[in-house]
Write a structure and sequence with these properties.
- The structure is a homodimer.
- Chain A is an alpha/beta fold.
- Chain A has 2 domains: about 290 residues, Aminopeptidase (3-Layer(aba) Sandwich), CATH 3.40.630; about 160 residues, Glucose Oxidase, domain 1.
- In chain A, about 35% of the residues lie in helices and about 25% in strands.
- Chain A has 15 helices and 16 strands.
- Chain A has an 8-stranded mixed beta sheet with strand order 1-10-12-11-13-16-14-15, with helices on both faces. In chain A, strands 3-2-9-5-6-7-8-4 form an 8-stranded mixed beta sheet.
- In chain A, helix 3 packs across helix 10 and helix 12 packs antiparallel against helix 15.
- The longest helix of chain A is centred in the middle third of the chain and has 21 residues.
- Chains A and B meet through helix 3, helix 4 and helix 9 of A and helix 3, helix 4 and helix 9 of B.
Chain lengths: ~475, ~475
């Protein structure tokens, strides 16, 4: 192992950088230092401390269990803002609350029951497990009844046309690709499914449907409905929209082949007037380049069915842990490390957008932004959104992370919703790169609860966050951007 | 392979009988024939037909999807009685409905929310997923509020004593042994957990508790509460009893370490007057020993949270499939094969008890009884309750089943709840022997739905039922009993 890490610009590319780094390290040359010897030694200590710390685990527990679900606009979300701000002040950070005007949607009662289908016992109904999609309007107060038309895709709906759809309820039975998820690419499977969750109400209403149902956009096969954001178009009639569980989608599809299936659907969500909430912004001031900022972040709001443990108490907690560990080790970053607990990632992205807009004039001082928002399973390394040339600067960090099995890196166009507006403005952006085999089995369901967090894996995520953050804060050169 | 299967009484024992059979087959002797050459050939054809048939799968689908949950006393249970009787009549069987006086418990509303706990956001509550245990009384109409005392065992509760328990709500946080289940012994893990489900209300009320909660007696870690029967003692005050999900048990236990945890509990189940229901009994008359009976059975009732697909539509369906396959192959059993779809296995066992009691004078004519009531995963062979000496008579059947990986057999004291009263009266009793790794993840929860049934594995179960039933019906000798 060489003591000084050199940059060899010949070996930059979009591939796993460990290899590139190793080759570079074998070719001593007078290129500038990337990380000082002291920084490299501190990174190893930081990594060790992170892998041994339970700080993030305890913070995740508190956010999930003591505060609970934190939907934007809720009292729990406000409590979480206060809590994180207090915890950051305890660490001696300079804390400010960034005021936001956020949407305030509240879930009400939700009930589905099949009231007509082949073979039913007279006088009975069959319960359907469903949940309103975030932002949905309500049904009439006593519910609505309609025949369900099952389609596999937007195209299939179009082919049916208005004559077959008008006055009915459309079920988009697009299947979440569990095989893709089980291969580790849960995010890709999720991406495919969300097109239906997002667009169902508009597509169905265009053809005169009275409500839209979607098969849950997740991998759960445990009778859990999967909520999430949906869209309306001001030029198209707004209709109520809900997700049915995997099982109920299967049952409805089965019954619909045998004859008419009618559902009674009751949803009573409300969209209340916009309200005030906050991003929590906490700075650990840099010792040399104080005005340059490395963001570590997650989002504080969650959906309301579970307790938002994986999505995204863990992301906030591993971000909070970065200054905690630096304090513990009594080491100071050269650039300022800014912890941000964003508000309203789930149903509006007001926090991320507002932060980037208000910092617009100061974007060049945002050296890098990191967000963790894909759970807390074993990290393989990190994803990077930015100039491919920058990856070579990061190879030494991958090398540190390699000992914990997190030595990979790859380029992605976007790495986190909240930091997306910064990415778009050219800020080099990062996220832990996770194995996503199980995340989407819990994500946005009632089962996103604290017990799903594996303390050892969370510590590994905490280490990736800390090593990335401190490494970037102490990088001796500017990242290409 | 010998053409005639001989009985060698030297090689009887409580071990896997394949070995014993092979040794016996190698030692020709003038002992009597167990199965005729024709029967053995028919068994092979029956097995092949069973492995190819989708009859049981379609019947499971109908019972689960078209009829739905079939709690005793419900209209769905009555519809299921009619349906199975009709299907058996279609096959030409002699059908009778055996009248039963059954309990009629109905689930009502159920709601749990923590109203006091450490760190809570003022003015909020935290939702607790729970479900009333079968037979529970209701809470007051507006619910009850109490502090939760968490104990791991009955002993721990006793040690706390009345002074710590009176006026409070006890949570029995006994953990379902998932490792045991994942090793294939789900039934054993379940047995350990049901002591708490059954006895919680009595133990808690004895010390003055106002309600009892149990951690779910199953392997689900998907925010599903697990219902099932519980007991009251007429000499102890009856208090409401519910199961909380794995996750909620974990959350409550975590919070209880930090301070008082209070829950508002609302349960509105009702125990209605006993009502009338039926066992469906359908006979395929034997061609030679018509008065001797081989029962194939499952139970028609189910819990009400899911649709009772695994528990136990599959058991009924594979039983119905036995005469279907015999008709299809145009082969006739020597003894009568009796399909029984029992009612009220889940919360009273009235069907099983009544059948055995009414047949008390005719028990000697019950040659054997088979029940399938542990799901429909890959069968390893069969379990047997009866005289160990009888196992040697069954080795040729194991040998047939061996080609599908179901060649094992073992002695158990009981093999099925409904046929238990027959077992106790000396009727040789059988059940498919299942791998139980996943069954208790769904059992008695909302996720016991049709999609959990693997058609290939169900066909394997159907084959075990058919081979056992036809083999026993045509066994040339009497089984030791």
């Amino acid at each position: 192992m060489t003591n000084r890490i050199k940059l060899n610009l010949q070996f930059i590319g979009i591939f796993f950088l460990i290899g590139a780094f190793q080759i570079a390290a074998q070719q001593p040359s007078p290129t500038p230092i990337l990380y000082s010897e002291k920084t490299l030694e501190e990174l190893k200590r930081l990594q060790t401390a992170a892998l041994q710390s339970d700080y993030a685990y305890r913070q995740t527990a508190y956010l999930s269990n003591n505060i609970g679900a934190r939907l934007t606009g809720s009292k729990q979300a406000e409590r979480a803002v206060e809590y994180v701000a207090d915890e950051m002040r305890k660490l001696g950070l300079a804390v400010r609350l960034q005021k936001l005007t956020v949407p305030h949607w509240v879930r009400g009662e939700e009930k589905g029951e099949l009231v007509e289908f082949a073979g039913m016992a007279p006088g009975t109904t069959q319960k359907i497990v469903l949940t309103a999609l975030g932002g949905s309007i309500a049904t009439p107060a006593d519910g609505l009844i309609g025949e369900i038309i099952v389609v596999g895709s937007f195209d299939e709906l179009e082919r049916l046309g208005r004559k077959n759809v008008e006055g009915k309820i459309v079920l988009f039975n697009n299947k979440f690709d569990r095989q893709m998820a089980e291969a580790g690419f849960g995010g890709a499977a999720y991406g495919q499914a969300t097109a239906y969750r997002g667009g169902a109400a508009i597509a169905a209403a265009r053809l005169g449907a009275i409500a839209a149902l979607v098969r849950s956009a997740g991998g759960s096969q445990n009778r859990l409905a999967h909520t999430g954001a949906m869209r309306y178009d001001n030029n198209v009639t707004k209709i109520p929209a809900a997700a049915v569980s995997f099982e109920d989608a299967e049952t409805i599809a089965y019954l619909a082949k045998m004859g008419a299936v009618k559902i009674k659907l009751l949803l009573t969500p409300q969209t209340l007037p916009d309200t005030t909430s906050y991003n929590v912004i906490a700075d650990l001031r840099g010792s040399e380049k104080t005005d340059e900022i490395v963001i570590v972040s997650g989002h504080l709001d969650s959906w309301d069915l579970g307790t938002g443990a994986l999505d995204d108490a863990t992301g906030v907690a591993v971000s909070m842990q970065v200054p905690f560990l630096l304090n513990q080790l009594k080491i100071k970053p050269k650039r300022t490390i800014r912890v941000i607990a964003y508000m309203n990632e789930e149903n509006g992205l007001v926090g991320g957008r507002t932060y980037a807009a208000e910092e617009d004039a100061n974007i060049s001082k945002h050296f890098a932004a990191i967000e963790s928002d894909l759970g807390a399973s074993h990290p393989l390394g990190f994803n990077f959104a930015g100039k491919p040339e920058a990856l070579a600067f990061l190879a030494p960090l991958s090398n540190v992370l390699r000992s914990q099995g997190a030595g990979l890196s790859q380029i992605q166009s976007g790495v986190g919703a909240d930091i997306g507006p910064l990415t778009q403005r050219g800020v080099p952006s990062f996220a832990p790169w996770f194995n996503q085999q199980t995340y989407f089995n819990y994500h946005h369901t009632a089962a996103d609860t604290f017990d799903k967090v594996n303390p050892k894996e969370l510590a590994e995520v905490g280490s990736v966050m800390a090593v990335l953050a401190y490494g970037l804060a102490n990088l001796e050169r500017d990242l290409p951007r």
